Amino acid sequence: xxxxxxxxxxxxxxxxxxxxxxxxxxxxxxxxxxxxxxxxxxxxxxxxxxxxxxxxxxxxxxxxxxxxxxxxxxxxxxxxxxxxxxxxxxxxxxxxxxxxxxxxxxxxxxxxxxxxxxxxxxxxxxxxxxxxxxxxxxxxxxxxxxxxxxxxxxxxxxxxxxxxxxxxxxxxxxxxxxxxxxxxxxxxxxxxxxxxxxxxxxxxxxxxxxxxxxxxxxxxxxxxxxxxxxxxxxxxxxxxxxxxxxxxxxxxxxxxxxxxxxxxxxxxxxxxxxxxxxxxxxxxxxxxxxxxxxxxxxxxxxxxx
Amino acid sequence: xxxxxxxxxxxxxxxxxxxxxxxxxxxxxxxxxxxxxxxxxxxxxxxxxxxxxxxxxxxxxxxxxxxxxxxxxxxxxxxxxxxxxxxxxxxxxxxxxxxxxxxxxxxxxxxxxxxxxxxxxxxxxxxxxxxxxxxxxxxxxxxxxxxxxxxxxxxxxxxxxxxxxxxxxxxxxxxxxxxxxxxxxxxxxxxxxxxxxxxxxxxxxxxxxxxxxxxxxxxxxxxxxxxxxxxxxxxxxxxxxxxxxxxxxxxxxxxxxxxxxxxxxxxxxxxxxxxxxxxxxxxxxxxxxxxxxxxxxxxxxxxxxxxxxxxxxxxxxxxxxxxxxxxxxxxxxxx
Lengths: 305, 335
Fold this sequence. Notes:
Chain A contains 13 helices and no strands. By secondary structure, chain A is mainly alpha-helical.
């Protein structure tokens, strides 16, 4: 009679803590395997002269030399500037247009639900699809974009080489990213605008605030946390922009659209300077992480007002 | 400050006639309370005056001018909403200063500052001027909301149940304060509530609203002792007025056509005597007073009794009427 009791007790004896660990262990294992370990491994590699195309070569520690080379490389600074230009203008355009669209949709005119859906379509497409068909749209001879631009400006289509011209190419990728992701910003802004109760506007109306003043002293400040969130998401996303630029220009012409992630990929998988690429990746990671942290602090401050 | 006149106002929301042919004249400096249950059209009336809704038909005059075509901002009214409706991202000070910063006013910063601090003292929120308006208790928020209305000198103050979300103690405090402030400023005020105590204590005149119709307008005394119909009689008095068949109790002299007799505490005389016609079912002890639940044949009555009266549940008593209210079959009051 005494034998079955201890087994039952042992099974039932699993503490809440043990059960909790049992449930999260698979997730943690995965996280460690595909996120944490590669990160730590990259940190390690960034201090070595390891080259992934020569797995059998002797790996030596080189101290901070990789970091030194990355930070003094003019090509990398050029790529960082290109990235900054791209991130800045996409955020400015997407925020302004996205907020304006949200403001219009929030007026709840006839058919606003239909137009919301239409506006959201670009965001639902795959970046690969978007990159490919914009390449056709930008085509100087047969592309619709060049055709339309030529109609408006009178410049012959053959001279509107959006992807081939050094001054136009950076703007070509900004236009595509804005086209694709403005709906996303609009959606977040719309949530912000919808969160402002009607009675606040009614109170302001009775308090004799003009439409202009209502916009600047109620709409914008109350939607600001949402706008800032949208900027944060778009900023992080575009800092690591890779796929669409690769499809559209591949970093060219020359290297005018070579954003940081493309330089990184070239260092890692064309020059096979794995150690130096790791160092660059770590620098990018720390920069984005640091900026995002500062930004989130500011966001929380705004939210707590 | 100005007179406000409503003439034949009608407002319909879908199938619901929210306001039907409403007439009301509010004199300069008067405190008028609209009393009625939820859905009676009280809030709609205020919103119509403020211009937040447009009437289907009818006329609204503020200070003699027809304001039908005017936007809320042009009407020069102040509104206290039932929800606090403070600007959540602003401090108390900024909330109070907001209406004064309208460009049409052209007030100097010093003048704005002076008025804000004066009103803040009046509504007793001057110690929290720099607080975020979201970091206040319910009572404080509502004081700010009232202050934001008072900081202006509009033609009329419109207040929509401003005290309903406060606890009982704060409500009675603010009730007195509001009345004091209104007298001090000599302001015209239209106040909406479903609380008869607020109506009775603050109003110069009370308007009783039911189903979009204004049943009766008069001083609290008039409304209480001379109700025009059953509905008005039932709105006021605690405990609720007892409605009895005309021939149930002695002592009444019902005029011809009387269907119902309305009897409040002051219309009922209780005697402990042999020829009893009623029985005490139970007694609620409220401390300062007792509610007697009495049964006369099949009818139940509630009345007040002073706490020293020697009656226990089960006692037989004799109940007679003294000058009760008489109503006809349609619920209208008979003289």
